[in-house]
């Protein structure tokens, strides 16, 4: 028996009017992933986190796994995402490649909905940001050292609903292309009673020593891995081969 799973949230790298002809990618063709029968029967739920890029034709390229609640979810999630089609992102009216952080949720539709085995990200949009921390370009666009002083991530962390409010410590590490880790966020985060997710905003300064290339953004909750995603730095994005940098990882 085949069961479809809903995409977590809506993967929409939306247009932001303030950027004029600089717009994010827009999802135009979407296919749901198939819920694996064995995991469906055992009521196992969780997320798959994938990273890659959306190219100038609006296709998902260089897709790879970042994290998953269960390995059995990975193949159906990958198969579905590879079929997606986007209206490509544009800078000054011209199509450009952008980074993609993609999550797929697998959830049962009963009173156990949302009972994930441990906290894991459901969504991770990352933006270049100005000195105040406000978005300076759409999701997935490169952070330009010397122009974009900060990065902004608006994470959604999926958690198992529990009746009582609680707190968890969230730590976020940015890891450079050569493996240097930087702690960009560490703080207790409140989770409301009955909540199935919590939003975590991360605003971090871009260090003067940060390298160009593709970076990882890794989340931990109470010391346990909770998934993550990617962002990229390029002083001159028009001269930086993002596709080649992804393939070198």
Describe what you observe in this structure.
By secondary structure, the chain is mainly beta. It is globular, with a radius of gyration of 18 Å. The chain starts with a strand and ends with a helix. The N terminus is likely disordered.
Helix content: under 10%
**How big a fraction of the residues is strand?**
35-45%
* Overall average pLDDT: 92
The number of E-state strands comes to: 17
Provide a count of the helices: 3
Q: Kindly name the structural category.
A: mainly beta
User: N- to C-terminal separation?
Assistant: 37 Å
- Taken in chain order, the helices and strands follow as EEEHEEHEEEEEEEEEEEEH
pLDDT below 50 for ≥5 consecutive residues: which ranges? 1-19
Which overall shape is indicated by the principal axes computed on the Cα atoms? globular
Q: Mind summarizing the main beta sheet?
A: 4 strands, antiparallel
Rg = 18 Å
Write the layout of secondary structure elements.
Elements (H helix, E strand, L loop, with lengths): L2 E3 L20 E4 L3 E3 L1 H5 L4 E9 L5 E9 L5 H8 L3 E3 L2 E2 L2 E2 L2 E9 L13 E4 L2 E4 L20 E9 L7 E10 L5 E11 L5 E9 L7 E9 L2 E10 L8 H6 L2
Antiparallel strand pairs: 1-3, 2-6, 4-5, 4-9, 7-8, 10-12, 11-12, 12-15, 13-14, 13-16, 16-17
List keywords for this structure.
globular, mainly beta, 44% strand, 249 residues
